[in-house]
Each structure stands twice: as C-alpha cells, then as structure tokens.
Structures
1.
Amino acid sequence: MSIARFPFRFLWLTLLLFSQGLVAADLATLLERVGTAYGGRQQLATATAFEQYGTTVSAMHRQPGRIHRAFQYPDRLRIDVRYGEDDRELRVLSGASAWQQGTPVTGARYDAMLLQAARLGLPGTLLDHRDRVSDGGFITARDGSRLRALELPFHGGLRLIAGVDPDTGRIVESRGIMATAAEHDLEFATVYSDFRTVGGRLFAFEETHYAMAGVVGQTRLDHVEVVQQLPEELFDGTLPDRPGPDQHLARR
C-alpha cells in the first residue's frame, strides 16, 4: 500500500464507522421513544397479556361480528369472531402449534397466525429483538404521511415492518410480509388510530385492515383488559367451544 493512499483509506474507514455508529444510535433512540410511548419498558414487561372485545367488519362476511382476542406475549393468541349463530371464525396459536376451527394448521396459515401474534405484541416484539431490528428509513403511510420504518425478519421468510410516527413514537401502521414462490410476496397491513391508555399501556382502539393493496376489514374495540397471565385453556385449540367470546370476562 502506498503511503499517499493510506491516509485516504484510513479517513474513509473512519467516516464509515462513524456513520454506522450514528445510525445505530438513532435506531436505539427511536426504539426507546416507541417503548416510552406505550408505557415504558417496565410496564410492557409487566403487562404481558390482554383481552380485547369489540366489533369487526370483514369483506368476506355480510354482517359485522363480535370479536374476542386473547393474547399472551409472545406467541399465545386466540381470535374468536361470531358473525351469527352459525357463522364463526376461531384461530388459536400456542407456540409451535396452531388451530383453525379446531383443526390443526401448518404452513402458510400457521405463518399468518405468527404474524398476527407478532403484530399484537408490538412494540415488545421489536424491543425484545432489537439486535435484529433494522432501520428501514422513511416510508409513506396510507394517509400520505412519512413514517420511520423498523423492520424485523423472523421465522424464515416472514418480515414485520412497523411504521412509527417519529414525533410521538406511536406505531400507526404495521405490515406483515410473507415470502412466496410467486413473483410477489403477500403483504397484510393494519393502520392504527384512536389510541388510549389501559392499565398503563397504550392501545389502538381502531384498526383498518389491508390485504395487498385493498381494504379487507375494520375492527373497533370497545373494551380492553390488561393482565399478567391468562389461563392456558384459552390457547388450547382442541377445545374450540370453551370458553366463548364473552364467557371468560364474565367469570372474572
């Protein structure tokens, strides 16, 4: 190496390492802002489970449905929707096992439930895997605003992207992406609004759901209950009829 070229290469390497350090510091600051917006790290670590009750509208159903979600961080999920006496959707995730309508599922349907759990677990999903979170720069939200993108790859080809309002630290949009053998990956997105604090933790009471580019539904919560632990029976997909959507809350 010539003496004349050494200072230039040294300067280039120094600037590269310095810029990488700035990016890492900026990412860490943004993650802390997100954690604070949702109640702080200590509160998020304490409030590890919740139940949500509300109404959902789906493009696949003719009438609104009553929805019950039970979630135990990080990978216990029960979604029970009643559109009528004879029209019900039940999805249950318990770690490596998943069921739909009481029948075990694998593959893409299992991956879809993992994405749902990861998105319900926000922002803990990002904070607890911060070493794998990357800064996706700025993205354009559905309403045209600019959001900071935080991206987390997991479980093979799955990717979770959180769109963060840089001013408030709130996650106002999430995108779950499933890699496929086809030309385009599958993308499921949710836009969040009407933020309220329950049990010291921030929740979005209004959600608009997208599949690829189109709106496929909307969920409106009317009640959220935060707890430390939920019964394991809630996440046993072999027991699809116990408990029902409103029975568990009534028992407590």
2.
Amino acid sequence: PEKGLQMIGPIDSKLEMQDLVLHLRQVMRLLVDAGDIAGAVPHALTIYERSNWGNAFETRQLGDAAVDVLIRAGRLVEAEEIVSRTRDGDPLAQPLQDRMEGRLALAKDDLSRAGQMLTRAISTFAGYGYEPEEMRTRRSLAEVHVKAGNREAAEAELRGVARMADEHGAVFEGNQARLALAAIGIELNSPAVRQEVPGQAEERVVTVLFADVRGYTSMVTNEAPADLVDKVASFHRWARQEVERHHGVVDKYAGDAMMATFNVSGARLDHTLQAVQAALAIRDKAGAAGLPVGIGIAVGAAVVGSLTSDANMSAIGEVTNLASRLQGQAGAGELVLSAEAYKRTREWLTQMSMSTSEATLNLKGFAEPVSAHRLQNQGGSSPRS
C-alpha cells in the first residue's frame, strides 16, 4: 500500500491531513477518468489499509473514491470492508456513503438497493447544488437501469446528465454520458462549440492538424462505393466532433483528408495539447471502424480568419505546410509531431505513458531537415500507403 503514497510523489512533512486527503482523492479520480484503473488500485489500497484519515468526513471522502476504484478492479472484499467501516460517519457526508452503498449493491447485483441508495445520494447532491457529484452518481444510476433492462429510464438519466454537463461546461461528464448512451444504441450529438473566429484575417500562434485515411486507394478498389462513402462520412463526423470538443475549428475536408486549426481566437494556452488529444480520439475511432489514419501536427504563426465575406475560416502560413508534410510521413495509426508540438505536450505524453521516437525528416518545400517526433499506436504502425 505504501506504493500508493510513493506514486503520488514526494509529500512535504508539513502537509496537513486535509491536503493529503484532497490530493489522494483527486489522483484516484484523475486515474479513473483516464481509464487507468490498475494505476489507481495502489492508492485505493493505501486507503483500505488505514481506517482513519483525519475526521469522519475526510475518511468518507477517501472511502468513496477508493470504493469506486476497487469495484472497477473487481476487488469487492476490500470495497465492502471500506463501506462497512465508514457507516458511522459524518451526517454531512451521508450522500458519499449512500453512493458507496449503491455502487457496492450494483456490483453485487442487488439492483433494488442500488437504485434506492443512488437515488437518495442524487437527491442530496442536488439539494446541495453539487452538480459534479450529482452527474457522477446519475451515471451510476443509469448503470442500474441498464442492468435491470429498463432502457428508457437509463436513457432519461443519461440525457439529463448530458444536458446538465452542457449547461455547466462539464465536458468530461457530457462525453461519458454520450458514450453510455451510444452503448445502448442512442447517439446524442455533442453541443456546438462556439469559436471566436476573427472576422478579418489576423496573425495568431496556432496548432494545425492534418489527418488522412491510409490505404484509401485500395479501399476504392475493394469496397462498394456506398459503403466507402458511409465510412468517410462517419470519419468526417467524428473528426468534427472531436475537433470542436477540443476547442478547434475544422478548416476543410478534401476527400479522405481533414485539416483543423486550434487557437483561432488567440485566447488559449493549451491548444497544442487539445490538438493532440483530439488527434488521438480521431485516430482511435477511425481505426476501430477500419479507417486507419495518419496525422501530422505542427505549431507556429499563421494568418487566420475568413479571407472573403463568404469563405470558411482559413489558416495560412508555414505551419500549415509543415503539418501537411508531417501528415504525409505518418504511418497508419501514427501521429507525427513537430519539435515545438512535442515540446508543448511532452510532459502530458510522459504522464500518459506514451513514448515517442525522434526523427529527422527531409520534407518537400523545406530547405533544411526537420526534427519531428513519432507517436505510434500501441499496436504499432504500418507503413504509409
């Protein structure tokens, strides 16, 4: 269990218990939201091994996060013990206890009790005006309805979560609700993301993304035209959804290719990370549908805006050229990042255990070799076709 504390990093000896509780809880939440349950388990076991974490409220806070992790990891014995020992806790933290009880009951297929406890937790969270916890709990209640075969009730809960998330800008919760709806056969479009595109062309530091389907020529030869058109249309739709979800703008489509620009408003500092996250989502969705894509991403100055009154947004500059050329060097399932794009996202890539390989590329239109970094799919990358 001490590994859980070690993985958090060095802890100041003067760190107060309430700060440690908050830190542990947020680390577990982040790992769960990132899908890294194995990485969250050592932290949850640290909670399990220690019965007292300050006061009863803080103990319940950590217990709630740890129980979520342990249930997802299939470790119901430890989860049940935490739930049992926190029952006599602070009344102000009762909705956390109710949620623990509900999630444990769901894991044990006691759907009646699960529904009762989660509904009570939702009511309390809503009364407090604590929307983030209400949304998380409503997603758990939707799981109960799905397991009970009540698809309409599950749909109502998830639509409610998506609506609340859109109103409060809770992008992750909205995405999770839409994924859960998709799992029961309901597609709910993402809300339109408004981007402040300059009316007149202005210079900005932007991140440009180019994505292109690999093996398209052979698909044209081997697939029925209607099937291929449907696949490409789906690719365009997914690409737009992910780009807009990550605060970017799709400049143009060209057959099986797409170009997007991030930070057209000039107001974001994390535009390169947003572009990489959008690229990974596009790659994974398209790959699952049999459309392997190669993606190039570059950062630099560009003139952005509508060049004529009736034109779409455009980004013009060397950065656009570079992103396009890098995309041309990307294999199926591969992202090729410019040196500056890699520099801006290196820390996040390391945190997510995503390794890259450095490459020096001779690109058309560039007098000198260009330094770049290749980020391959976990399953490897096939050559450019």
3.
Amino acid sequence: MDRMIESPSTPPPRVSDDLRRILSYADGNPMGVAAILAHTRGRGLQTMVIILALPFLSPVAIPGLSMPFGVAIAICGLRIAMRHEPWLPGFLLRREIPFAVLDKTLRFGIAIQTRLEKLLCARWPIFVASQPATMVCGFGIVVSAFLLSLPIPPPFPLTNTLPGFAIIFIALGMLERDGLVIALGYTLCLLSALYVTGIILLGGAGAAGIWHWLSGFAGSSG
C-alpha cells in the first residue's frame, strides 16, 4: 500500500537534483571524484559521465582536466556498452576538484539540465530500446571522450565543448529514454570528429587562418 501511495506522487530523480545535492554536500570544500560519484548511487554510469563532462561545456579548454576526465568518461562509456557495473580506477577516484571549479561547473550544469529536462520525453525508441542500441550509445560516449581528451592547443575553440555536449546528450537521452536527444548527441560527436580531423589535416597555421577568417567574416556581417 505504501508503494502505491509513493509511486504516483514521488517524481523520478533528475540529474539536476543530483547536481544540487553534490553542491550542497561540498559546502565550500574541494571534493574528490569518488565522493561525487557516490552521490549518483542508483543513477548509473550515465549520470557519472554527465557530471564528468560538465566542466567542458565552456568554449575555452580547461587545462589539466581533459585527459583524466576523458579517460574516466571513456571507461564509463565502455562499461555502458558492455552493460557492466560502475567502476573507475583508483587514481581517478582520488583526484580532487577545487570548490571554485566545482561551484561554477555545477551551477552552470544545474541551469542547463533544468532547461533540458523540461524538453525530454520518451520517443524514438530505436535509439535506446535494445541491447545493440545501448552498445552504440556506449561507444558514442567513448568516441566523444577520446575527442575531448585530445591535447589540442589554443586558438581552436569548441574542441572540448562539442564532444562534451555530445556525451551529455547521449547519456541524458539514455536516462530519459529520449532517442531524439541521443541522435543529437551522435550528430555532435560526428561534428566533433570532423572538426578535429580538419585541424589535424590542415595543421595549426592553416586551421588558425581559417578560424580568423571566419571570425572576421562573422564580425563584418554583424
């Protein structure tokens, strides 16, 4: 009887609620990855990768985080693809995030997640309703994490942001069974791959020149 009362009245947990709980727990102190992930208990690997990808939504690369967090996200993606339990190696779990970074990241993440959660609904089941679909989602996260972790220097913008959003869209779509959002994540992953490939093929000088030309063109158009 209790279960019948709680089920319709209790809303399902949302990622934004997890982020608020983590921020409240930190209370002005740095927080280790292990403690952060402990607060996603019951929410699975998808919530882990969303939290780990949040710092990369800024257009500017964050020094020192892309490699370890990219590795952590890739491990989570592989475990999602293989339907394994959450796990990360000790050297990643022991890493601490300063509160200033944590506070800015989580508040930004709460704002984004709250807006996205209003738009999410169960649709396009072909992207989420089978084991092969889950494997593709996991490997999509792995590819995006690899692109995110590449040490691409300035002045190239969005090298972290595009794969970061791809990871979040795929993981959030899995949590909410929203195939449209997963498809958007795949699209961003493809765009990230094309962008990084263009930088590599053109070389630093060529890609920088194109970027400056595009920036000047956008400025003159405005």
